[in-house]
Amino acid sequence: MARQKKRASVSDPSPSAGYPAPPGRSRARRWVVWPAAALGLVAAGVWVMREGRPRSPNVVLITVDTLRADHLGSYGSKGADTPVLDALALKGVRFERAFASIPLTGPSHATILTGLYPPVHGVRDNVVFPLAQSHQTMASILKRQGYRTGGFVSAYPVAGNFGFSEGFDEFSEGFHEAANPGEGAAERPANEAVDAALEWLGK
What we know:
globular; about 30% helix; alpha+beta
């Protein structure tokens, strides 16, 4: 009994800076995908909408590559210029304890989209290990539920060639190759990914 009380106290919320306290253990289970997404990349926005069923919610997953919590205003950074993310934190649920399963873009996104750990989904590094089609993704599950699905990415490690387009009706990359060899992998600015997503939604 003493052990159970000690474990419960670990998840007790502690409000700070006027932001909503993180939920307790039971509610956190409902949002297993969301905390991991904050540790992903400005690489992918997953947009899904359902036609003819207004009571079914639209779902948007936005991930930001290598984003540190202490560089966001909602987590206490005084010099951060992140008003939109701070507003989302203020109006929604902000997790104080969220951990990536692996600190690599491709494998972390494979976990976000499948709910599986790297030893299970097999994506152990960027580019080298593709996500097998045998694994269900969030997009493929939602598509079977009647959603229209679109993925809009900005970074090469989550390109469709590596299995990340699985389950999407629309999958947009539009990468710009580096001008000179050795300057980095193909990518595109986040605003271009957002523009592509908005154009798709407009249709």
